[in-house]
Amino acid sequence: MPIYRAHVLVCNGTGCSSNHAGAVTAKLKTELERQHLSNEVLVVPTGCHGMCEMGPVVVVYPEGTFYCQVKEDDVPKLVEEHLLKGRPVDALMYKGKETTAVPNYKDIPFYGKQNRIALQNCGYINPENIEEYIARDGYVGLAKALGEMSPQQVIDEVKKSGLRGRGGGGFPTGTKWSFCAASPGPKKYVICNADEGDPGAFMDRSILEGDPHAVLEGMAIGAYAMGADEGYIYCRAEYPLAIVRLHQAINKAEEYGLLGQNILNSGFNFTLHIKEGAGAFVCGEETALMASIEGQRGMPRPRPPFPAVSGLWAKPSNINNVETWANVPQILSKGGDWYASLGTEKSKGTKVFALTGKVKHTGLVEVPMGIKLREIIFDIGGGILNDREFKAVQIGGPSGGCLTKDQLDTPITYESLPPLGAIMGSGGLVVMDEDNCMVDIARFFLEFTQRESCGKCTPCREGTKQMLLLLEKICSGKGEMKDIDLLEELGNMVKNMSLCGLGQTAPNPVLTTLRYFRHEYEAHIKEHRCPAGACQALLSYTIVQTACKKCGLCAKNCPVQCIPGGRTEGYTIDAEKCIKCGTCFTKCPFNAISKG
Amino acid sequence: MSLSAGEMRQKVLEIIAPWKGRRGGLIPILQALQGLMGYVAEPAVKIVSEELKIPMSEIYGVATFYAQFHLTPRGRHIIRVCRGTACHVRGSLKILEAVKEQTGCPENGTTEDLRFSLEPVACLGACGLAPVMLVDSQTFGRLTPEGVSGILAQFV
Ligand SMILES: Cc1cc2nc3c(=O)[nH]c(=O)nc-3n(C[C@H](O)[C@H](O)[C@H](O)COP(=O)(O)O)c2cc1C
Ligand code: SF4
Ligand code: SF4
Ligand code: SF4
Ligand code: FES
Ligand code: FES
User: Fold this and answer.
1) Do the beta carbons of residue B141 and residue A18 sit within 8 Å?
2) Got the DSSP string for A537-582?
3) Cys bridge to A433: A300, A371, A388, A530, which one at CB 3.0-4.6 A?
4) pTM (global) more than 0.80
5) Among A329, A232, A211, which residue's Cα sits nearest to residue A283?
6) Reported ipTM
7) CA distance B113 to chain A (A)
8) Residue of the nearest CA to atom 2 in ligand 4?
9) CA proximity to A539, closest of A561, A521, A550, A524
10) Phi, psi of A66, deg, nearest 5
């Protein structure tokens, strides 16, 4: 194997690929060829670095120089200056607040507070090359488990780590494993939940695409601990790259004797299958997911019996989330005590969050449990886009809640969020500013859960529909004050009487916005006004005549020609015909159009 | 893709073959049928029903439950506009409206010339680039309503 003096890591994750990372990768290879450097410098396509917004991301090692927004045309310069002459290119580096170039990965604020465990290999290795995974201590945990530990010792190690399910529920993983291990029977299954349906979340996708072997290894360790010899990964069909990478990884691992029969000569057998989901959010619920693997409609069923007793094809089964599985190999190789030393008393380790919405730096971040929302949004995320005012952050997706600036200093743990009406959930963090209407957000989430309700039980099926109708009524300015009480009443009913987690949590976004942003509901109802200017039905655009310079730009751009007038007499908006598209508002060079 | 009835039957039988006498095949079979014809066509469903002895009602029960399956022909290009949370707060509704206006395609429908089908979807997993849409397998991020027409023009 040739020894390379430098490695150029090019992110080929979904975000960077959509910004032409593929072309950058190809250009790097041809330029290195041209400069006769192909034998000295290796180009490695990697998974997501988390900073997708600044993509395509290119990192040069051994220095760890971080380049962002690299274009195909930048490549010749990068190769000539940095790789040939050894002079890093300031112009392509990340610029901090002070607009000075930040040469190193580690010094970028976005990465400063992160502690990458589940994401340790994402962006560092070529996910299609098992040897790179192995070179970073991959499969050491599995070897240790099979070679030195009894199944019970493995379970004890996971219990000691304090790892809790990262799929939303936060159930202690070691305890869950011990239930399944205790179930009698020669046939058991382990399942990986890669359905990731929460709109606004993409951590599982990045792990599957960027480091698939971590998930396979975690599952093999779990299977050994619980006595299972077969496993399934249930992955959304909307993640085609993840599915390809998983297939490749399974084939390679089998070739290397790390999956399949008699793994590492231990006598332990484990085969793994991939099932593609077919686009139903409720299939992320564990009993529905198993029904879906069996080829049925994916509807939840009551528990008990729990999957640990009777799961897939009525056999004892254990299901964990992608991120949960991805943490397991390192817990085995570095020890449960090491993992438990991170985080807080009851919430151990780290959590991956998908930071999105109105923050400057969106992306994937992995932080120790107990970190404050403020640190994530303002230190890592760099604050609010365009320096607007922070208004709220939605945590936990459609099952979670909206928190306000008063809660920015709450440490994020499994225990701290429920009293506030939110949950950790799978790790979606959507930041909102003054332009986002909280009633609209509540309506948005309810529209989602209502559409995805499987319809099996009445409170969820009918209750969410009624709630949605009420919210639509309020957003269109026809709400009445009694609708607020009705929303609360219905919300509590749906929460308490639904069969599965979807219905039990669907009202959360409504109930939290009612709790923290009731004044916005009241403005819609009493004043027929949307304070954020987001609800179209309540909007009107008017030209402020004193500020108008009569340039005519608005009239020229209005798609329905409803701004009559001329350069001399000035312009006015015909409110009857206006479709409230907002074009005039954004086009006016003098901010002479008001929205309200 | 136009297949003769005989060719279709042959292909469908090939798809079914590995699942005879095995459980859990219905969803992968439907996924393969859709891959073959672009949608789940009734004649193919009939063959599956007869060969695997699964009632038509059960097959349709599964096919209609999952958003992935389509029972009518679809356009040459599938536009998926993300309506996930991250995209919503960054204005994806306006993108959806622009796409509808440009193509004349209704939501979850297909244009008459079979050029486009339009499907709003929840989260494409590229939230960092919100608002996002996928045309066939190409992701487009940081969209603006004005930018939509230029993108769609690439797909004829
Ligand atoms: C409606 C609904 C959707 C869910 N979606 C997911 C999902 O997409 N991914 C996931 O890992 N867990 C999801 N869950 C949670 C699972 O039911 C289950 O608790 C989880 O996979 C267990 O793994 P963990 O203990 O590792 O978190 C969902 C639950 C409900 C009620
Ligand atoms: S709560 Fe909703 S999604 Fe869950 S089983 Fe009932 S109807 Fe289906
Ligand atoms: S909002 Fe749109 S339709 Fe209304 S006046 Fe302005 S440009 Fe014309
Ligand atoms: S674009 Fe602004 S300044 Fe120009 S005519 Fe319209 S309102 Fe007046
Ligand atoms: S896809 Fe490249 S940084 Fe996320
Ligand atoms: S919310 Fe649009 S890509 Fe995730």
Assistant:
1) yes
2) GG--EEE-TTT-----HHHHH-TT----EETTTEE---TTT-----
3) A388
4) yes
5) A232
6) 0.79
7) 25
8) A588
9) A524
10) -105, 115
